[in-house]
Protein backbone atom coordinates (compact mmCIF):
# COMPACT_ATOMS: atom_id res chain seq x y z
CA UNK A 1 0.00 0.00 0.00
CA UNK A 2 1.36 3.46 -0.82
CA UNK A 3 1.64 6.03 1.92
CA UNK A 4 -1.08 8.67 2.42
CA UNK A 5 1.48 11.16 3.65
CA UNK A 6 5.23 11.25 3.16
CA UNK A 7 7.50 13.62 5.04
CA UNK A 8 11.17 13.89 4.03
CA UNK A 9 13.95 15.90 5.66
CA UNK A 10 11.47 18.28 7.28
CA UNK A 11 13.08 21.18 9.14
CA UNK A 12 11.50 24.21 10.81
CA UNK A 13 13.62 26.93 12.35
CA UNK A 14 12.35 29.62 14.72
CA UNK A 15 14.96 32.34 15.19
CA UNK A 16 17.90 29.96 14.78
CA UNK A 17 16.42 27.18 16.89
CA UNK A 18 15.40 24.00 15.13
CA UNK A 19 11.94 23.12 16.37
CA UNK A 20 11.90 20.23 13.89
CA UNK A 21 15.06 18.99 12.21
CA UNK A 22 15.59 16.51 9.39
CA UNK A 23 12.43 14.58 10.17
CA UNK A 24 11.26 11.84 7.81
CA UNK A 25 8.35 9.45 8.19
CA UNK A 26 5.37 7.97 6.36
CA UNK A 27 1.73 7.69 7.30
CA UNK A 28 -0.03 4.62 5.93
CA UNK A 29 -3.76 4.95 5.23
CA UNK A 30 -6.34 3.51 7.55
CA UNK A 31 -4.58 3.29 10.89
CA UNK A 32 -4.23 5.17 14.13
CA UNK A 33 -0.84 6.85 14.23
CA UNK A 34 0.50 8.66 17.27
CA UNK A 35 3.19 11.25 17.73
CA UNK A 36 4.58 11.36 21.25
CA UNK A 37 7.45 13.10 22.95
CA UNK A 38 8.28 15.25 25.97
CA UNK A 39 7.06 18.86 26.18
CA UNK A 40 8.76 20.99 23.55
CA UNK A 41 9.64 17.98 21.39
CA UNK A 42 7.98 19.66 18.41
CA UNK A 43 4.74 17.69 18.17
CA UNK A 44 2.41 20.64 17.69
CA UNK A 45 4.94 22.32 15.39
CA UNK A 46 4.88 19.16 13.29
CA UNK A 47 1.07 19.34 13.13
CA UNK A 48 1.18 22.98 12.12
CA UNK A 49 3.70 22.16 9.38
CA UNK A 50 1.79 19.31 7.80
CA UNK A 51 -1.55 21.18 7.95
CA UNK A 52 -0.10 24.29 6.31
CA UNK A 53 -0.40 26.62 9.30
CA UNK A 54 3.41 26.97 9.23
CA UNK A 55 5.64 26.84 6.14
CA UNK A 56 8.62 24.46 6.43
CA UNK A 57 12.12 25.93 6.38
CA UNK A 58 13.31 22.86 4.48
CA UNK A 59 12.11 19.46 3.43
CA UNK A 60 9.26 17.90 1.49
CA UNK A 61 5.74 16.98 2.46
CA UNK A 62 3.38 15.15 0.18
CA UNK A 63 -0.20 14.28 0.94
CA UNK A 64 -2.58 12.21 -1.18
CA UNK A 65 -0.02 12.11 -3.97
CA UNK A 66 0.52 15.88 -4.16
CA UNK A 67 3.44 18.00 -3.09
CA UNK A 68 1.80 20.10 -0.38
CA UNK A 69 4.78 22.07 0.88
CA UNK A 70 3.74 25.71 1.29
CA UNK A 71 0.06 25.02 0.58
CA UNK A 72 -2.31 27.08 2.76
CA UNK A 73 -4.61 25.18 5.15
CA UNK A 74 -7.72 25.77 3.06
CA UNK A 75 -6.07 24.15 0.04
CA UNK A 76 -5.02 21.15 2.13
CA UNK A 77 -8.59 20.84 3.36
CA UNK A 78 -9.60 20.31 -0.27
CA UNK A 79 -7.26 17.32 -0.44
CA UNK A 80 -8.93 15.76 2.59
CA UNK A 81 -6.90 17.02 5.53
CA UNK A 82 -8.69 17.95 8.73
CA UNK A 83 -7.57 18.68 12.27
CA UNK A 84 -8.39 19.78 15.79
CA UNK A 85 -6.39 22.10 18.03
CA UNK A 86 -4.63 21.71 21.34
CA UNK A 87 -5.87 25.12 22.47
CA UNK A 88 -9.53 25.01 21.48
CA UNK A 89 -10.43 26.84 18.28
CA UNK A 90 -14.22 26.84 18.53
CA UNK A 91 -16.21 29.74 17.09
CA UNK A 92 -17.83 31.10 20.24
CA UNK A 93 -19.97 33.50 18.20
CA UNK A 94 -21.96 30.59 16.73
CA UNK A 95 -24.17 27.74 17.90
CA UNK A 96 -22.78 24.25 18.34
CA UNK A 97 -24.40 22.83 15.15
CA UNK A 98 -23.25 25.88 13.18
CA UNK A 99 -19.68 25.14 14.24
CA UNK A 100 -20.02 21.64 12.82
CA UNK A 101 -21.62 23.06 9.67
CA UNK A 102 -18.55 25.26 9.12
CA UNK A 103 -16.58 22.03 8.92
CA UNK A 104 -18.71 21.06 5.92
CA UNK A 105 -17.89 24.27 4.09
CA UNK A 106 -16.24 22.64 1.07
CA UNK A 107 -19.16 20.30 0.46
CA UNK A 108 -21.76 23.08 0.27
CA UNK A 109 -22.96 25.50 -2.38
CA UNK A 110 -20.69 28.47 -1.63
CA UNK A 111 -21.81 30.82 -4.40
CA UNK A 112 -22.44 34.37 -3.21
CA UNK A 113 -25.50 35.46 -5.18
CA UNK A 114 -27.65 32.37 -4.52
CA UNK A 115 -26.82 32.77 -0.81
CA UNK A 116 -27.74 36.45 -0.88
CA UNK A 117 -31.08 35.70 -2.57
CA UNK A 118 -31.73 32.56 -0.51
CA UNK A 119 -32.34 30.43 -3.58
CA UNK A 120 -33.82 26.97 -2.98
CA UNK A 121 -30.55 25.27 -3.98
CA UNK A 122 -28.84 26.90 -1.00
CA UNK A 123 -31.59 26.31 1.57
CA UNK A 124 -31.97 22.69 0.51
CA UNK A 125 -28.24 22.08 0.84
CA UNK A 126 -28.24 23.87 4.19
CA UNK A 127 -31.07 21.76 5.56
CA UNK A 128 -29.23 18.58 4.62
CA UNK A 129 -26.09 20.03 6.17
CA UNK A 130 -27.94 20.80 9.41
CA UNK A 131 -29.11 17.19 9.59
CA UNK A 132 -25.62 15.92 8.90
CA UNK A 133 -24.28 18.19 11.66
CA UNK A 134 -26.84 16.82 14.12
CA UNK A 135 -25.93 13.28 13.13
CA UNK A 136 -22.23 13.99 13.72
CA UNK A 137 -22.97 15.61 17.07
CA UNK A 138 -24.76 12.42 18.10
CA UNK A 139 -21.83 10.36 16.79
CA UNK A 140 -19.40 12.20 19.10
CA UNK A 141 -21.89 12.13 21.99
CA UNK A 142 -23.12 15.73 21.98
CA UNK A 143 -26.86 15.10 21.47
CA UNK A 144 -27.53 17.22 24.58
CA UNK A 145 -26.10 20.30 22.89
CA UNK A 146 -28.04 20.30 19.61
CA UNK A 147 -29.59 23.69 20.45
CA UNK A 148 -26.70 25.12 22.45
CA UNK A 149 -24.57 28.15 21.79
CA UNK A 150 -20.91 27.18 21.69
CA UNK A 151 -20.06 29.63 24.48
CA UNK A 152 -22.49 27.84 26.81
CA UNK A 153 -20.73 24.46 26.53
CA UNK A 154 -18.22 22.92 28.97
CA UNK A 155 -14.62 22.25 28.02
CA UNK A 156 -14.96 18.51 27.45
CA UNK A 157 -17.93 19.01 25.13
CA UNK A 158 -16.05 21.62 23.12
CA UNK A 159 -13.23 19.13 22.53
CA UNK A 160 -15.77 16.75 21.00
CA UNK A 161 -17.35 19.58 19.05
CA UNK A 162 -13.99 20.18 17.36
CA UNK A 163 -13.83 16.50 16.42
CA UNK A 164 -17.37 16.67 14.99
CA UNK A 165 -16.43 19.76 12.98
CA UNK A 166 -13.30 18.06 11.65
CA UNK A 167 -15.32 14.97 10.68
CA UNK A 168 -17.94 17.08 8.91
CA UNK A 169 -15.49 17.59 6.07
CA UNK A 170 -15.41 13.80 5.55
CA UNK A 171 -11.61 13.91 5.63
CA UNK A 172 -9.16 11.23 4.51
CA UNK A 173 -6.84 12.13 7.33
CA UNK A 174 -7.77 13.54 10.72
CA UNK A 175 -5.13 15.06 12.97
CA UNK A 176 -6.06 15.30 16.63
CA UNK A 177 -3.87 17.55 18.78
CA UNK A 178 -4.14 16.29 22.37
CA UNK A 179 -7.82 15.32 22.28
CA UNK A 180 -7.68 14.06 25.87
CA UNK A 181 -5.83 17.04 27.40
CA UNK A 182 -7.67 18.36 30.42
CA UNK A 183 -10.16 15.50 30.50
CA UNK A 184 -10.74 13.13 33.44
CA UNK A 185 -10.28 9.35 33.23
CA UNK A 186 -13.90 8.73 32.27
CA UNK A 187 -13.92 11.31 29.53
CA UNK A 188 -10.57 10.03 28.27
CA UNK A 189 -11.98 6.51 27.95
CA UNK A 190 -14.89 7.92 25.95
CA UNK A 191 -12.55 9.84 23.64
CA UNK A 192 -10.53 6.64 23.27
CA UNK A 193 -13.63 4.79 22.08
CA UNK A 194 -14.60 7.67 19.81
CA UNK A 195 -11.18 7.74 18.11
CA UNK A 196 -11.41 4.02 17.47
CA UNK A 197 -14.87 4.43 15.94
CA UNK A 198 -13.54 7.19 13.69
CA UNK A 199 -10.65 4.99 12.55
CA UNK A 200 -13.03 2.10 11.90
CA UNK A 201 -15.06 4.35 9.62
CA UNK A 202 -12.03 4.47 7.32
CA UNK A 203 -10.42 7.78 8.34
CA UNK A 204 -6.67 7.78 8.90
CA UNK A 205 -6.11 9.21 12.38
CA UNK A 206 -2.94 10.96 13.51
CA UNK A 207 -2.77 11.72 17.20
CA UNK A 208 -0.60 13.93 19.36
CA UNK A 209 -1.17 12.92 22.94
CA UNK A 210 0.37 13.07 26.38
CA UNK A 211 -1.86 10.43 27.88
CA UNK A 212 0.42 7.40 27.55
CA UNK A 213 -2.28 4.88 28.37
CA UNK A 214 -4.50 6.22 25.61
CA UNK A 215 -1.66 6.18 23.09
CA UNK A 216 -0.47 2.65 23.93
CA UNK A 217 -4.03 1.32 23.87
CA UNK A 218 -5.18 2.49 20.51
CA UNK A 219 -2.16 3.24 18.30
CA UNK A 220 -1.15 0.98 15.44
CA UNK A 221 1.98 2.98 14.89
CA UNK A 222 3.91 5.41 17.09
CA UNK A 223 6.45 8.09 16.20
CA UNK A 224 8.57 9.36 19.10
CA UNK A 225 10.05 12.86 18.88
CA UNK A 226 12.74 14.38 21.07
CA UNK A 227 14.16 17.88 20.50
CA UNK A 228 12.57 17.95 17.05
CA UNK A 229 14.22 14.73 15.92
CA UNK A 230 12.92 11.22 15.44
CA UNK A 231 13.89 9.11 18.42
CA UNK A 232 12.06 5.94 17.47
CA UNK A 233 9.20 4.59 15.38
CA UNK A 234 7.19 1.39 15.54
CA UNK A 235 4.29 -0.45 17.12
CA UNK A 236 3.30 0.28 20.69
CA UNK A 237 4.98 -2.98 21.77
CA UNK A 238 8.27 -1.95 20.13
CA UNK A 239 8.11 1.56 21.60
CA UNK A 240 7.35 0.23 25.05
CA UNK A 241 10.56 -1.79 25.00
CA UNK A 242 12.82 0.67 23.20
CA UNK A 243 15.55 1.61 25.72
CA UNK A 244 16.14 5.06 24.22
CA UNK A 245 12.48 5.94 24.50
CA UNK A 246 12.35 4.66 28.05
CA UNK A 247 15.27 6.79 29.15
CA UNK A 248 14.20 9.91 27.26
CA UNK A 249 10.53 9.92 27.88
CA UNK A 250 8.89 7.17 29.84
CA UNK A 251 11.47 7.32 32.66
CA UNK A 252 13.53 4.43 33.95
CA UNK A 253 11.51 1.21 34.06
CA UNK B 1 -42.07 31.89 23.01
CA UNK B 2 -38.65 33.51 22.94
CA UNK B 3 -37.77 31.03 20.24
CA UNK B 4 -38.83 33.86 18.05
CA UNK B 5 -35.44 35.42 18.66
CA UNK B 6 -33.97 32.38 16.98
CA UNK B 7 -35.87 33.11 13.80
CA UNK B 8 -34.64 36.52 12.68
CA UNK B 9 -37.03 36.53 9.70
CA UNK B 10 -39.90 37.08 12.14
CA UNK B 11 -38.65 40.66 12.46
CA UNK B 12 -39.13 41.43 8.76
CA UNK B 13 -42.96 41.75 8.70
CA UNK B 14 -42.77 43.74 11.94
CA UNK B 15 -40.30 46.10 10.34
CA UNK B 16 -42.49 46.39 7.23
CA UNK B 17 -45.54 47.28 9.33
CA UNK B 18 -43.61 49.86 11.37
CA UNK B 19 -42.32 51.47 8.17
CA UNK B 20 -45.82 51.47 6.67
CA UNK B 21 -47.63 53.08 9.61
CA UNK B 22 -44.87 55.45 10.68
CA UNK B 23 -45.90 58.22 8.23
CA UNK B 24 -49.27 58.42 10.05
CA UNK B 25 -47.33 60.05 12.88
CA UNK B 26 -45.59 62.53 10.60
CA UNK B 27 -47.12 65.99 10.51
CA UNK B 28 -44.58 67.91 8.45
CA UNK B 29 -41.75 67.44 5.89
CA UNK B 30 -39.16 67.73 8.66
CA UNK B 31 -40.39 64.46 10.18
CA UNK B 32 -40.03 62.78 6.81
CA UNK B 33 -36.57 64.26 6.44
CA UNK B 34 -35.41 62.82 9.76
CA UNK B 35 -36.94 59.44 8.89
CA UNK B 36 -35.17 59.41 5.53
CA UNK B 37 -31.85 60.10 7.19
CA UNK B 38 -32.54 57.27 9.63
CA UNK B 39 -33.23 54.94 6.71
CA UNK B 40 -30.08 56.01 4.85
CA UNK B 41 -27.93 55.40 7.91
CA UNK B 42 -29.72 52.15 8.72
CA UNK B 43 -28.89 50.56 5.37
CA UNK B 44 -25.24 51.61 5.67
CA UNK B 45 -25.12 50.24 9.24
CA UNK B 46 -26.71 46.93 8.21
CA UNK B 47 -24.05 46.56 5.50
CA UNK B 48 -21.20 47.66 7.75
CA UNK B 49 -22.38 45.24 10.43
CA UNK B 50 -21.76 42.38 8.00
CA UNK B 51 -18.11 43.43 7.96
CA UNK B 52 -17.62 44.53 11.57
CA UNK B 53 -20.16 42.53 13.54
CA UNK B 54 -20.15 39.24 11.65
CA UNK B 55 -16.76 38.97 9.96
CA UNK B 56 -15.00 40.85 12.78
CA UNK B 57 -13.07 43.26 10.53
CA UNK B 58 -13.04 46.94 11.48
CA UNK B 59 -13.40 49.79 8.99
CA UNK B 60 -13.03 53.45 9.93
CA UNK B 61 -13.33 54.56 6.32
CA UNK B 62 -16.77 53.61 5.12
CA UNK B 63 -17.93 57.20 4.82
CA UNK B 64 -15.28 57.40 2.11
CA UNK B 65 -17.27 54.89 0.06
CA UNK B 66 -20.51 56.70 0.94
CA UNK B 67 -19.03 60.01 -0.24
CA UNK B 68 -17.40 58.51 -3.31
CA UNK B 69 -20.76 57.02 -4.32
CA UNK B 70 -22.47 60.38 -3.82
CA UNK B 71 -19.86 62.31 -5.80
CA UNK B 72 -19.58 59.78 -8.62
CA UNK B 73 -23.29 59.93 -9.36
CA UNK B 74 -23.33 63.69 -8.71
CA UNK B 75 -20.53 64.36 -11.19
CA UNK B 76 -21.73 61.94 -13.87
CA UNK B 77 -25.33 63.17 -13.79
CA UNK B 78 -24.70 66.83 -12.93
CA UNK B 79 -21.55 67.64 -14.94
CA UNK B 80 -21.71 65.09 -17.73
CA UNK B 81 -25.48 64.81 -18.04
CA UNK B 82 -25.78 61.03 -17.58
CA UNK B 83 -29.25 59.71 -16.78
CA UNK B 84 -29.22 59.46 -12.95
CA UNK B 85 -30.15 55.79 -12.84
CA UNK B 86 -27.12 55.00 -14.99
CA UNK B 87 -24.87 57.26 -12.95
CA UNK B 88 -26.00 55.50 -9.76
CA UNK B 89 -25.07 52.15 -11.29
CA UNK B 90 -21.73 53.56 -12.39
CA UNK B 91 -21.10 54.83 -8.85
CA UNK B 92 -21.71 51.36 -7.42
CA UNK B 93 -19.28 49.89 -9.96
CA UNK B 94 -16.62 52.53 -9.22
CA UNK B 95 -16.84 51.98 -5.46
CA UNK B 96 -17.00 48.21 -5.85
CA UNK B 97 -13.88 48.18 -8.01
CA UNK B 98 -12.00 50.54 -5.69
CA UNK B 99 -12.97 48.54 -2.61
CA UNK B 100 -11.90 45.32 -4.33
CA UNK B 101 -8.57 46.82 -5.39
CA UNK B 102 -7.63 48.03 -1.90
CA UNK B 103 -9.20 45.18 0.08
CA UNK B 104 -6.57 42.50 -0.47
CA UNK B 105 -3.56 44.44 0.87
CA UNK B 106 -5.61 46.15 3.60
CA UNK B 107 -7.34 43.05 4.94
CA UNK B 108 -4.06 41.22 5.40
CA UNK B 109 -3.83 43.52 8.40
CA UNK B 110 -5.87 43.06 11.52
CA UNK B 111 -6.89 44.94 14.67
CA UNK B 112 -5.36 48.39 15.13
CA UNK B 113 -3.42 48.17 11.89
CA UNK B 114 -6.57 47.48 9.90
CA UNK B 115 -8.29 50.38 11.67
CA UNK B 116 -5.42 52.71 10.70
CA UNK B 117 -5.37 51.55 7.07
CA UNK B 118 -9.13 52.01 6.58
CA UNK B 119 -8.95 55.34 8.39
CA UNK B 120 -6.27 56.44 5.93
CA UNK B 121 -8.33 55.26 2.97
CA UNK B 122 -11.38 57.26 4.11
CA UNK B 123 -9.32 60.40 4.72
CA UNK B 124 -7.65 60.00 1.33
CA UNK B 125 -11.02 59.90 -0.44
CA UNK B 126 -12.32 62.95 1.43
CA UNK B 127 -9.13 64.93 0.71
CA UNK B 128 -9.35 64.16 -3.00
CA UNK B 129 -12.99 65.29 -3.03
CA UNK B 130 -12.11 68.54 -1.20
CA UNK B 131 -9.12 69.46 -3.33
CA UNK B 132 -10.30 68.56 -6.83
CA UNK B 133 -12.57 71.59 -6.86
CA UNK B 134 -12.72 71.86 -10.68
CA UNK B 135 -14.74 68.63 -10.68
CA UNK B 136 -16.33 68.43 -7.24
CA UNK B 137 -16.89 72.06 -6.33
CA UNK B 138 -14.39 71.63 -3.50
CA UNK B 139 -15.39 72.43 0.08
CA UNK B 140 -18.38 74.45 -1.16
CA UNK B 141 -20.07 71.30 -2.41
CA UNK B 142 -22.00 70.67 -5.58
CA UNK B 143 -25.59 70.45 -6.79
CA UNK B 144 -26.97 67.06 -7.80
CA UNK B 145 -29.95 66.67 -10.16
CA UNK B 146 -33.05 64.71 -9.17
CA UNK B 147 -33.68 61.16 -10.32
CA UNK B 148 -36.49 60.23 -12.64
CA UNK B 149 -37.28 56.62 -13.38
CA UNK B 150 -39.06 56.09 -16.71
CA UNK B 151 -40.75 59.47 -16.49
CA UNK B 152 -41.63 59.16 -12.78
CA UNK B 153 -39.76 61.87 -10.97
CA UNK B 154 -38.37 60.88 -7.61
CA UNK B 155 -38.83 64.15 -5.81
CA UNK B 156 -40.05 65.30 -2.41
CA UNK B 157 -39.87 63.73 1.04
CA UNK B 158 -42.88 61.41 0.74
CA UNK B 159 -41.75 59.62 -2.37
CA UNK B 160 -38.18 59.31 -1.09
CA UNK B 161 -39.44 57.92 2.20
CA UNK B 162 -41.13 54.99 0.46
CA UNK B 163 -38.15 54.30 -1.76
CA UNK B 164 -35.78 54.29 1.21
CA UNK B 165 -38.18 52.14 3.25
CA UNK B 166 -38.17 49.51 0.49
CA UNK B 167 -34.38 49.74 0.23
CA UNK B 168 -34.07 49.08 3.98
CA UNK B 169 -36.41 46.08 3.86
CA UNK B 170 -34.46 44.62 0.96
CA UNK B 171 -31.13 45.31 2.69
CA UNK B 172 -32.25 43.60 5.91
CA UNK B 173 -33.61 40.64 3.95
CA UNK B 174 -30.35 40.26 2.01
CA UNK B 175 -28.28 40.54 5.19
CA UNK B 176 -30.36 37.89 6.97
CA UNK B 177 -30.09 35.60 3.95
CA UNK B 178 -26.36 35.95 3.74
CA UNK B 179 -25.71 35.35 7.43
CA UNK B 180 -27.72 32.12 7.46
CA UNK B 181 -25.89 30.56 4.50
CA UNK B 182 -22.58 28.74 3.95
CA UNK B 183 -21.05 32.08 2.99
CA UNK B 184 -22.32 33.72 6.17
CA UNK B 185 -21.13 30.91 8.39
CA UNK B 186 -17.70 31.13 6.78
CA UNK B 187 -17.67 34.86 7.55
CA UNK B 188 -18.66 34.32 11.17
CA UNK B 189 -16.02 31.60 11.46
CA UNK B 190 -13.41 34.11 10.28
CA UNK B 191 -14.44 36.16 13.31
CA UNK B 192 -14.72 33.22 15.71
CA UNK B 193 -11.46 31.48 14.86
CA UNK B 194 -9.59 32.35 11.70
CA UNK B 195 -7.32 29.30 11.84
CA UNK B 196 -10.27 26.95 12.41
CA UNK B 197 -12.01 28.49 9.40
CA UNK B 198 -8.92 27.96 7.24
CA UNK B 199 -8.55 24.36 8.32
CA UNK B 200 -12.21 23.81 7.44
CA UNK B 201 -11.40 24.93 3.90
CA UNK B 202 -12.42 28.59 4.12
CA UNK B 203 -10.18 30.85 2.06
CA UNK B 204 -10.37 33.53 4.74
CA UNK B 205 -8.77 36.39 2.82
CA UNK B 206 -11.21 35.97 -0.09
CA UNK B 207 -14.18 36.07 2.26
CA UNK B 208 -12.86 39.20 3.97
CA UNK B 209 -12.43 40.86 0.58
CA UNK B 210 -15.93 39.79 -0.48
CA UNK B 211 -17.66 41.23 2.56
CA UNK B 212 -15.55 44.40 2.49
CA UNK B 213 -16.72 45.02 -1.09
CA UNK B 214 -20.35 44.20 -0.24
CA UNK B 215 -20.43 46.60 2.71
CA UNK B 216 -18.72 49.28 0.62
CA UNK B 217 -21.36 48.91 -2.10
CA UNK B 218 -24.14 49.19 0.53
CA UNK B 219 -22.56 52.44 1.70
CA UNK B 220 -22.11 53.69 -1.86
CA UNK B 221 -25.73 52.94 -2.76
CA UNK B 222 -26.97 55.03 0.15
CA UNK B 223 -24.45 57.72 -0.74
CA UNK B 224 -25.99 58.00 -4.20
CA UNK B 225 -29.52 57.97 -2.76
CA UNK B 226 -28.58 60.64 -0.25
CA UNK B 227 -27.05 62.81 -2.99
CA UNK B 228 -30.09 62.68 -5.27
CA UNK B 229 -32.47 63.14 -2.36
CA UNK B 230 -30.86 66.22 -0.84
CA UNK B 231 -29.77 67.63 -4.20
CA UNK B 232 -26.60 69.02 -2.65
CA UNK B 233 -23.44 67.30 -1.44
CA UNK B 234 -20.34 68.42 0.45
CA UNK B 235 -17.02 66.66 1.22
CA UNK B 236 -18.19 66.12 4.84
CA UNK B 237 -20.14 63.12 3.56
CA UNK B 238 -16.84 61.29 3.07
CA UNK B 239 -15.26 62.68 6.24
CA UNK B 240 -13.76 60.95 9.23
CA UNK B 241 -16.57 61.91 11.61
CA UNK B 242 -19.15 60.42 9.30
CA UNK B 243 -17.20 57.12 9.28
CA UNK B 244 -17.07 57.13 13.07
CA UNK B 245 -20.82 57.73 13.18
CA UNK B 246 -21.44 54.62 11.05
CA UNK B 247 -19.21 52.47 13.25
CA UNK B 248 -20.87 53.84 16.39
CA UNK B 249 -24.30 52.84 15.06
CA UNK B 250 -23.12 49.24 14.61
CA UNK B 251 -21.40 49.04 18.00
CA UNK B 252 -24.15 50.81 19.95
CA UNK B 253 -27.00 48.78 18.47
CA UNK B 254 -25.09 45.55 18.87
CA UNK B 255 -22.46 43.85 16.78
CA UNK B 256 -23.47 40.74 14.87
CA UNK B 257 -27.14 41.73 15.03
CA UNK B 258 -28.81 43.06 11.88
CA UNK B 259 -31.65 44.61 13.87
CA UNK B 260 -29.09 45.97 16.31
CA UNK B 261 -27.42 47.93 13.52
CA UNK B 262 -30.87 49.22 12.57
CA UNK B 263 -31.66 50.35 16.12
CA UNK B 264 -28.22 51.92 16.38
CA UNK B 265 -28.94 53.97 13.27
CA UNK B 266 -32.33 55.06 14.64
CA UNK B 267 -30.85 56.20 17.95
CA UNK B 268 -27.78 57.91 16.57
CA UNK B 269 -29.79 59.80 13.96
CA UNK B 270 -32.77 60.86 16.07
CA UNK B 271 -31.12 61.47 19.44
CA UNK B 272 -29.32 64.67 18.40
CA UNK B 273 -32.67 65.94 17.00
CA UNK B 274 -34.46 65.16 20.25
CA UNK B 275 -31.74 66.79 22.32
CA UNK B 276 -31.74 70.11 20.45
CA UNK B 277 -33.80 71.62 23.29
CA UNK B 278 -30.79 71.35 25.57
CA UNK B 279 -28.80 73.82 23.45
CA UNK B 280 -25.17 73.77 24.58
CA UNK B 281 -25.59 70.61 26.59
CA UNK B 282 -26.74 68.63 23.55
CA UNK B 283 -23.41 67.01 22.69
CA UNK B 284 -22.55 66.44 26.36
CA UNK B 285 -25.77 64.51 27.00
CA UNK B 286 -25.38 62.66 23.70
CA UNK B 287 -21.87 61.56 24.64
CA UNK B 288 -22.94 60.59 28.16
CA UNK B 289 -25.73 58.37 26.81
CA UNK B 290 -23.33 56.61 24.44
CA UNK B 291 -20.83 56.04 27.25
CA UNK B 292 -23.50 54.72 29.61
CA UNK B 293 -24.75 52.22 27.00
CA UNK B 294 -21.27 50.94 26.29
CA UNK B 295 -20.40 50.62 30.00
CA UNK B 296 -23.58 48.81 30.99
CA UNK B 297 -24.20 46.95 27.71
CA UNK B 298 -20.82 46.32 26.12
CA UNK B 299 -22.34 43.90 23.61
CA UNK B 300 -24.68 46.63 22.40
CA UNK B 301 -28.37 47.26 22.95
CA UNK B 302 -30.12 44.54 20.98
CA UNK B 303 -27.93 41.50 21.87
CA UNK B 304 -27.96 42.46 25.56
CA UNK B 305 -31.71 42.97 25.72
CA UNK B 306 -32.63 39.82 23.79
CA UNK B 307 -30.29 37.77 25.99
CA UNK B 308 -32.01 39.20 29.08
CA UNK B 309 -35.48 38.48 27.73
CA UNK B 310 -34.48 34.94 26.82
CA UNK B 311 -33.17 34.32 30.32
CA UNK B 312 -36.27 35.86 31.85
CA UNK B 313 -38.62 33.46 30.03
Radius of gyration of chain A: 19 Å
Principal-axes shape call of chain A: globular
Q: Could you tell me which chain pair has the largest interface and how many residues each side has?
A: A-B, 42 and 27 residues
Q: How big a fraction of the residues of chain B is strand?
A: under 5%
What strand line-up does the widest sheet of chain A have?
Answer: 6-7-8-3-9-10
Estimated share of beta-strand residues of chain A: 15-25%
Q: Uncertain segments of chain B of ≥5 residues (pLDDT<50)?
A: none
Main sheet specs of chain A: 6 strands, mixed
Name the helicity range of chain B: over 70%
Keywords (chain B): Cell membrane, Membrane, Transmembrane, Transmembrane helix
GO molecular function (chain B): branched-chain amino acid transmembrane transporter activity
Subcellular location (chain B): Cell membrane
Organism (chain B): wastewater metagenome
Summarize this structure as a short list of keywords or feature phrases.
heterodimer; A: Rossmann fold; six-stranded mixed sheet; B: mainly alpha; 14 helices; 73% helix; 3% strand; globular
Can you walk through the features of this model?
- The complex is a heterodimer of chains A (253) and B (313).
- Chain A has 253 residues and is of the alpha/beta class.
- Chain A has 2 domains: 1-80 and 171-253, Rossmann fold (3-Layer(aba) Sandwich); 89-170, no CATH class.
- Helix content of chain A is 39%, strand content 23%.
- A 6-stranded mixed beta sheet of chain A has the order 6-7-8-3-9-10, with helices on both faces.
- The two termini of chain A are 36 Å apart.
- Chain B is mainly alpha-helical.
- Chain B has one domain (9-18, 29-239).
- Helices cover 73% and strands 3% of the residues of chain B.
- Chain B has helices at residues 11-21, 29-54, 62-78, 84-107, 111-131, 133-136, 157-179, 182-192, 194-199, 204-230, 240-253, 258-274, 282-296, 301-312; strands at residues 142-143, 147-149, 152-154, 232-233.
- A two-stranded antiparallel ribbon of chain B has the order 1-4. A two-stranded antiparallel sheet of chain B has the order 2-3.
- In chain B, helix 2 (29-54) packs across helix 12 (258-274), helix 3 runs parallel beside helix 5 and helix 8 crosses helix 10 (204-230).
- The interface between A and B is medium-sized, with 42 and 27 residues.
Amino acid sequence: MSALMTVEGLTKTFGGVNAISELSFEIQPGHIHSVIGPNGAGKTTLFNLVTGVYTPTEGRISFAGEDTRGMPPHALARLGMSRTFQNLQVCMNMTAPENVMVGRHLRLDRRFLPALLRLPAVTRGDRACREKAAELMRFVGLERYLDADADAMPYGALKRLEIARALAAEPRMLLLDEPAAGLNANETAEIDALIQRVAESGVTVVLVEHDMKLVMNISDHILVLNYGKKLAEGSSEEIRHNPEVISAYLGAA
Amino acid sequence: MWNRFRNPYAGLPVLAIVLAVLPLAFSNPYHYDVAIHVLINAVVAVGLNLLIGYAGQISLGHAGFFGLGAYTTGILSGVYGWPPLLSVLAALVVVGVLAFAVARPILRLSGHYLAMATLGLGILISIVISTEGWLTGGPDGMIVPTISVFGWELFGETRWYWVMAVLLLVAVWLALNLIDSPVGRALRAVHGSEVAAQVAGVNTISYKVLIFVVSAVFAALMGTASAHYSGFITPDLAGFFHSIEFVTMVVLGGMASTYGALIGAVILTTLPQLLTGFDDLEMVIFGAILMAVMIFMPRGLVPTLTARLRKGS
